[in-house]
């Protein structure tokens, strides 16, 4: 039953390959996802049998487990994906829809496997497939060379990071084959390999979640269609990294890596916040914003509050997807995502501005959404631990509010336009974005710290880690930071030095570094190719040549030595016999003559062997084989005799 | 039953030789029928080894051949050989389907492929070193002619290169066999006896030298860097069917020989030399991938990925040698190496077919001349993309199942080497993605049709259409198997594991 959850979308993805029933793919995709959502929401706590993936050594296990963490995440993934698919009905050209909805179903399906997987092997396999799916979707427009290039970059960078994960997986699989419980039991055993495995997995997480130093692929991935970006930034792909840290928290908690995780997350988040402040393209702002938000989640796991990380993941899935959908809706009208160029489209009637304000407030950390209580918990925990993480978190909060306020100012200006959209296609888009925003805000109100404490609830207990009680100091500090940041962002004309801004816009040189690395790798490969062509190819040529000339030489020797010798023998014989008695001349002479003839014929035959006719080589091979067998037989017979 | 599978193709080939030239369709049908029957028989073998993995050698037959030499015709099938036999029969049948329309020297073409199949089945079934050598040679000769006669411009040269390299290799292999023969008392070529006797266990020098001979012999076939340069040359010149069998099965003779003979017969020597051999494996992995990345000819590129992929086979064998055949990393490494041979056979066999189909249409294989193939031929592009992803080791496809096991085994025994080997996976990924981007994506820009390559399998250009029915019949089963093994490798790996468990016979 549980296999239906990822299985239904995957089935739709497979059916998209069929030539028939193409037009219905989009309906199937939405229906399958809705059904999957119903199954996972209804069947919490279920577990499947392991599929015997590899039977040797009981490495076994592709099983699914719908515990609380997985169920909650799967529901969020399916909900966000549903909204994005609904939006795509209006956004994607009709002719492209079958392929698009098939690809999106694949994307969501493998993400659901990842969320529900009960073994590190299953997680890794779906993890890589999520990367492949995002490759196919970022490069959805096959004529767009730049989109293709960014798709390759996205897959390649994440996969290179995944190689570390693969190594970690291999070591962990040998040490603790089986499901996640077996892995956690092993991680408590004090095995020296545990921190190594955890560190290797962390590299994979950094790649997937576009943390430093792998971050450059994500802003480039903006070339893909907007619904793909919306999904990729919220509930799939990058979310997989943070989810995995939460999922494997018992493993990481057993290692001394937690401070490193905090440093990775906070460093990436600060970097991304500064870079986002320098962008001129709305989608790139949102991309760096995603890096920053994931950094906060990762830091939260490092700080020991994984439940807060998960909740923040849910929240950002909602509002980030909504922000992308709004950006795509504006782009649909304006034909660009440069913030200056969006102004005209932003003035058209629609809900874009209102939704952007609400989603932006949620992103900035104003206590209207589900994001507030985890933020609060993370800051509270940091304050309890030490000054460095606290200062970084406050700085991040200021930056976050500043860049989103700045983006709002650049796109919408001061005028407020709120009206219902008129065009039908825009209607679908606005409705999807609105559903996401209201979901996040509604959940936020339902779970606001005034009403309940989501982290102290059963979900928090299921994840483990320390619970952080609501502290008014952290709440106040966070609010203050958000307000300061928004003030900075809304003030017009706040520009840094142009060169510094340009540097920040390119991800502080990481974009250029990535491009240089790609060029370098190509050049290195080309050098390898030249080395091979120069040094190894000639070996074979030379050997063939040498063989040929050896054969020719043998032929010449054959003619000169054997032929001549045979002739000489014959001639000598003749001369001898002429001197002999006439009586026996007839017999002996004829015998020698025949011998000479035979020898000459043999010489001829040997010469023909070197004529290059393939068949005759074959005969030679066969003859050689016989010689070897006979020789071996002779050896054996001799040794067999006592 | 095994003897039937071995000699049926040969008999069919002889029958074809006796038919008059004009009965072309009958000849083709006989050839395809023989290949399909052997495919059916090997499917029975595979089913049997999956059902009872620990059943050891089965379907055994024994016949005295050269009793004074201690050499007899002993054949059998286990989890190691059955999948490779099925692969051989499948690819042979696929070649016959693919080249159905071929007319040039048709009789010889069919005959040589059938002889090749007999030779390959013999190698996989035989448990006697002398006959192993014989069948090994039998498989070499038809390939020489296939490359030389039906190949392209420089085919003669390439065929000669192939012949010289592999002959030198099999000479080394034969020396190794003679060494093993002399190492047991009473002298015998019987593999099971040799393995049980554990020759040269205390003579490190002799054991090492014999191992060197075997590794050189099988290494040429595999091929390992620096003995690889015959491979790209042969592939570039060979006709499509030749390339498919060459990469799909002939390379496996090297890996199979290492696993079946060298490793169990000389475990201690192999353990002593595991690290140097492992370094060769890793060099092959990284070097093969890097050089493949540099190629501009699609076929040459795929040829070099074989160097990379067969490097994983050698790495898996090394893991088993270093950790011991019976140990956990050893077994998983060996299982991975064996599965890698099957997987590589399917993927690379399919890729060579795919390149052939491209060449049939365009008369060229230069990567830079293609663009936007996805738009022109979506079915073709989709199938090839699956094979590409399989080749770069994407989970859910067969390449991952095998490479993961190889790395798991190697990390558990020769860890640093495995870590370096992972670089090869990264390079392969980059290469395939770049080719996908150049050839399949982008605006549709294709070479003019009609420039038919010499040796094109159809005898005529098929134009810029998507895949025809016959081409689908060739490619779809291979792709389907890549997916099935990738999603559910369990049964097959179980069968292989049963064989590797019993491999050392102790």
Describe, in plain words, how this protein is organized in 3D.
The complex is a heterodimer of chains A (642) and B (506). Chain A is built from 27 helices and 2 strands. Chain A has 642 residues and is an all-alpha fold. In chain A, helix 2 packs antiparallel against helix 3 and helix 15 runs antiparallel to helix 17. The longest helix of chain A is centred in the C-terminal third of the chain and has 43 residues. Chain A is elongated, with a radius of gyration of 37 Å. The model of chain A has no long low-confidence stretch (mean pLDDT 78). About 3% of the residues of chain B have low confidence. Chain B is mainly α. The longest helix of chain B is centred in the C-terminal third of the chain and has 35 residues. In chain B, strand 1 and strand 2 form a beta hairpin. Chains A and B meet through strand 1, helix 5, helix 6, helix 24 and helix 25 of A and helix 5, helix 6, helix 12, helix 14 and helix 17 of B.
